[in-house]
Structures are given as C-alpha cells and as structure tokens.
Amino acid sequence: MAPPQSISIIGAGIGGLTLARCLLKRNIPIVLYENMPSGTRHSYAITLLQSSYQPLLDVPEIDESAFKRRVAVDGTMGGNGAINAKLLVQQSASSSNSFRAHRGKLEELLREGLDVRWEHTLERVETIDSHVVLYFQNGQNGQKVQSDCVIGLDGIHSNTRK
C-alpha cells in the first residue's frame, strides 16, 4: 500500500476542521491553512440538528451529552443548549434533538490536535508535475508549500477555486 498523501486543506471553519479530523482519524496527514488570525473568531450560536451533529461524535470520540455540555451556548452553566420550541415563531423548525451550540466552542473542539497554520492567505495555486504548489501571502514574506492534494473549504470567495 502506498503511504498516505499529504493533504492541504484551505479554510479552518467548521467544514475544514470536520474534514481534517475525519482524515486524521484515518491516519492521513493533513495541514489546515487559514487566512484569519488564531483564536476564537465566532461568538454566536448556531442550531445543530441531530442529523448534522451525530456523525461528529465519532470524530472526537465523545458521547452526546459531553459533546452538548462542551459546545452548548449554556454549557458553562451546566446546560445542554436545549431549544424551547414553544418560544419559536415556527415551532416545527426545531426537533427535540436540536440544540444551540456556540460556534466558537464547536470550532475549538474540532481544532484539538490539528495542525492549523494561521494567517496564511492563499494567493495562487499551480500544478507542477504531479504536485500542487500553494503560494501564500504570510506576513511580510510569501511562502510556497508543495502538497499531493489540496481541498478548498475557504468559502464562497474561494481563492482555491479561482
């Protein structure tokens, strides 16, 4: 069997972090590149449906109640992010298994143990032989990185896709 390819993921949001954790769990080496500075970037709540968060429980190998306590908007106060459907305008928009998660805490949990390179703004991508070369604007000095595979999860204005 061939050794795992090095994979570069552009974008360290929820999508990039989730993919990186899944690949890492399968012992596939990855590096995430993010153009934003390190630290919690998002301090707002998102609603997670059970169908979207259930597969995530296997990635950090955490049980559902611990996961909810860790990322729920009210988790630091012993809550589990439960949504009171009676307070919603559209009560059918929430199921009993939905909960409110703090996006920054979710990203923090997913980021644990990953190699995230902060403040790396992708300028261009070139294919040379069988490799991809990524050119980053990194502070005052540019940086060139060679990778076997590049996955762009850097949003709607993706430099990877351009």
TrEMBL record:
Molecular function terms from GO: FAD binding; monooxygenase activity
Cofactor: FAD
Pfam families linked to this entry: FAD_binding_3
InterPro entries: FAD-bd (IPR002938), FAD/NAD-bd_sf (IPR036188)
Organism of derivation: Glarea lozoyensis (strain ATCC 20868 / MF5171)
UniProt record similarity statement: Belongs to the paxM FAD-dependent monooxygenase family.
Domain FAD-binding positions: 7-162
Pathway where it operates: Secondary metabolite biosynthesis
Annotated PANTHER family: FAD-DEPENDENT MONOOXYGENASE APTC, MONOOXYGENASE, FAD-BINDING
Record-given protein name: FAD/NAD(P)-binding protein
Keywords, comma-separated and alphabetical: FAD, Flavoprotein, Monooxygenase, Oxidoreductase
SUPFAM superfamilies with a match to the protein in the record: FAD/NAD(P)-binding domain
Phylogenetic lineage: Eukaryota, Fungi, Dikarya, Ascomycota, Pezizomycotina
